[in-house]
Amino acid sequence: MKKAIIFFSLLLLLTNCKKEVVEKPKKLIEEDKMVNIIYDLTLLEAIKAQNSPIENKQRTNPKNYIYKKYNIDSLQFAQSNRYYASAIANYKKMYEKVNQRIVAEQKLADSMAKKSIGKKALPSTAVDSGAPQVP
């Protein structure tokens, strides 16, 4: 009898563990859109942390900008974020996508900067400027 009670208690416990901890919100933001939102928020927060003169002039709140851009509200974002965060493995994958995108953008910016620096160096040689060459 004790074994049966223990067995049914464990069975009940295991079946209850499969329930979602956080209920799916009615207005859930799609996962791909959420990744884009997290990416944009990450960039805007990085700009804000750098005390960008552009950001300081506009005095915009990054989250308010995102809400307008993606046509969402703060409650919808908070509920969706909470829902995705409750499934930590999937949430981690979402942040890995954001990180991959940031790394790709950084590589692109670095390569463009190198090309730009290379183009600027060509016309400013001593021969072009008429200045005497220094050995």
Distance between the termini: 98 Å
Largest sheet: none
Figure out the total of helices: 7
Q: State the total count of DSSP E strands.
A: 0
Radius of gyration: 26 Å
Structural class: mainly alpha
| Beta-strand proportion | under 5%
Helix content: over 70%
What's the pLDDT, averaged over the residues? 78
Low-confidence stretches: 124-135
Order of helices and strands: HHHHHHH
- Overall 3D shape: elongated
Write up what this structure looks like:
Helix content is 74%, strand content 0%. It is elongated and about 75 Å long. The longest helix is centred in the last third of the chain and has 34 residues, at 88-121. Helix 2 packs across helix 6 (88-121). By secondary structure, the protein is an all-alpha fold. The protein has helices at 2-17, 31-49, 53-58, 62-69, 74-86, 88-121, 126-129.
Keywords, separated by commas or semicolons:
disordered C terminus; mainly alpha
SSE topology sketch:
Elements: H1 2-17, H2 31-49, H3 53-58, H4 62-69, H5 74-86, H6 88-121, H7 126-129
Helix pairs in contact: 2-6
What's the short version?
Helices cover 74% and strands 0% of the residues. By secondary structure, the chain is mainly alpha-helical. Helix 2 crosses helix 6 (88-121).
